[in-house]
């Protein structure tokens, strides 16, 4: 078996574990999110580092729909700068800096009808915990997606003494091993080929599809971001403009 197929097998195993063990949690989270969106409010989404990928995946993108508000702090993503300005060293410091998340939350107006959806593989870093604590103070339901079972026993980096999984109202376990990287390499200590991104994205679309199902069953019209690259679809741009107009209307609330 090649290393490539080892990674594929590991990824399939994680996705199967999510399917087998997390559907009830996904359904519970989706019902809460559907209530927020139906009320004209938001599902706010937050993550750090590669945990911003699921945040950026859900909206805006083809097949997503209005109701999910990405909270992406540029200093907490390091995909364009690795060293120098906004490098990995600074990122590692900031995600562990207690109080930073409190300042992030000051930039928005929240409502108890909102949901906060946080992505964190380990659940121990301070900025995510800040966001969860501040969300709960504001009366929001907190949904956390990450490697909850694998994180048991890990020591938090926050003075509250809790991990983000301890604080969550609803947890969707990504079923990823704590080390994340999944393939051993000859003559190397560290493994390669992580699994958390695929697990996050799997959880995202299982959850969002369920939110859409619930809202459609309730007769709620979804403002879907359409594909505008399909020949012959003469109204795609109109539907896109309508979705963005609805997003603009709602985002004015925050």
Largest beta sheet: strand ordering: 2-1-3-4-5
- Average pLDDT: 95
- Write the element-wise H/E pattern from the N-terminal end onward: HHEHEHHEHEHHEEEHH
CA gyration radius, whole angstroms: 19 Å
> What is the CA–CA distance across the termini?
51 Å
Task: Please tell me the total number of domains.
Answer: 1
- Spatial shape: globular
What's the name of the CATH homologous superfamily? Glucose-6-phosphate isomerase like protein, domain 1
- Helix content, binned percent: 40-55%
Summed up, the helix count is 10
Kindly estimate the percentage of residues that lie in beta strands according to DSSP: 5-15%
Structural class: alpha/beta
Largest sheet: 5 strands, parallel
User: Could you name the CATH class?
Assistant: Alpha Beta
Tell how many strands the DSSP assignment holds: 7
CATH architecture: 3-Layer(aba) Sandwich
At CATH level 3, the topology is Rossmann fold
